[in-house]
Amino acid sequence: MAKIIDGKSISQQVKDEVKEQVSKLAQEGVTVTLAVIQVGADPASSVYVRNKKKACEAVGIGSESYELPEETSQEELLKLIDTLNERPEVDGILVQLPLPGHINEQIVLDRIVPGKEVDGFHPQNVGCLSIGKPGFVSCTPAGVIQLLKRSGIEIAGKECVVIGRSNIVGKPMAMLLLKENGTVTVTHSRTKDLPSVTRRADILVVAIGKPKMITADYVKEGAVVIDVGIHRMEDGKLCGDVDFASVEPVASAITPVPGGVGPMTIAMLMHNCLESVRLSGKAK
Ligand code: NAD
Predict the structure, then answer these.
(1) Measured from the CB, is residue 168 less than 6 Å from ligand 1?
(2) Whose CA is closest to atom 31 on ligand 1?
(3) Ligand 1 pocket residue status of 169, Cβ below 6 Å
(4) Where does 67-151 have alpha helices with state H?
(5) Are 167 and 218 part of one and the same domain?
(6) Is 140 a pocket residue for ligand 1 (Cβ < 6 Å)?
(7) Is residue 2 part of a domain?
(8) Where among 119, 151, 174 does a domain terminate?
């Protein structure tokens, strides 16, 4: 029986710690504020934005909400970002993706000053991660590291295999595991004989975007399996990229979906907002 890594309770620990720090800062007269921008009314985006605002409220971080119409031009959006960049009381700026097709996402994300770009997608933040300088780290992979550490799973010296090489999950995940002294292999859609590579893993992180693709055949006996995937099935239930029923009997520890990696993403966003205040020198 694998140990179930409880993302709900670990994310709550992270949020409780952030809340405590935010409240200490408040006593020194320092506030923390996140500006959240949504363009259009994509229902999934609206849910994510609502959850982010709720999380801010729960930890005592102020949030400013900008809900812009679908037809907002790129120039208008960039102008808003320029204004938020300049306002010292705004510590973090988040643009909910995806943006409507007429707006170039990379141009928009690059416009946020790196010191306020709490999603960790800005090229400067990505670069800082790769050379080990302070900066913001993409929230989902940062959350995976917290899940491992807070579950007492040693990363140093372990064979770590990441499936997926996206800029948001796979690549920063690999950099973070490397930073923790893991021996890291990154696999992707062009990897030959994927199971033979993934079966080397002591720690297997799966971020493919394919429901239940990873079965026991891909997993070494006793491996730790982290499932980043999230999919809603026809019956309305959620599942991950890992076939939990098949893999759980061979793994030593595994994250469930829901209740594994998912809740960590918002918790790490809250952590990044707090970090923003520290990095800016606004707080000691
Ligand atoms: P993506 O589509 O950008 O990247 C998928 C990666 O998987 C690619 O690098 C591709 O090379 C690789 N891949 C595709 N098919 C493959 C195959 N057959 N064999 C090996 N590799 C293959 O996806 P993403 O943004 O990295 O997200 C991955 C999953 O994680 C999705 O299910 C997404 O919904 C989920 N996700 C969850 C959270 C969260 O908060 N829990 C956050 C981000 C993404």
Answers:
(1) yes
(2) 209
(3) yes
(4) 74-86, 105-111, 123-131, 139-150
(5) yes
(6) yes
(7) no
(8) 119
Ligand 1 pocket, residue 37 CB under 6 Å:
no
- The reply to whether 250 and 148 lie within a common domain is yes
Domain count across the chain: 2
Cα–Cα dist 78/65, whole Å = 16
Can you tell me the distance from the alpha carbon of 257 to that of 142, in angstroms, rounded to the nearest whole number? 18
Q: What is the CATH number of the domain that holds 197?
A: 3.40.50.720
Ligand 1 atom, smallest distance to 260 CA:
41
Q: Does residue 59 belong to any structural domain of this protein?
A: yes
What single DSSP character describes residue 214?
B
Residue 150 · residue 4 · CB < 8 Å: no
In tens, the pLDDT along 26-44 reads 999 999 999 999 999 999 9
- Is 133 known to be catalytic? no
Contact 228, 240 (CB under 8 A): yes
User: pLDDT of 120-144, one tens digit each?
Assistant: 999 999 999 999 999 999 999 999 9
Question: Which domain range does residue 111 map to?
Answer: 29-119
Same domain, 167 and 200: yes
Task: Write the residue with the smallest CA distance to atom 41 of ligand 1.
Answer: 262
List, for residues 221-280, the tens digit of each pLDDT value: 999 999 999 999 999 999 999 999 999 999 999 999 999 999 999 999 999 999 999 999
Report whether pLDDT(203) > 90: yes
Dump pLDDT digits (tens) for 219-238.
999 999 999 999 999 999 99
158 and 115, same structural domain? no
Q: Does residue 105 sit in the same domain as residue 147?
A: no
Mean pLDDT of 97-119: 97
- Write out pLDDT tens, residues 3-14: 999 999 999 999
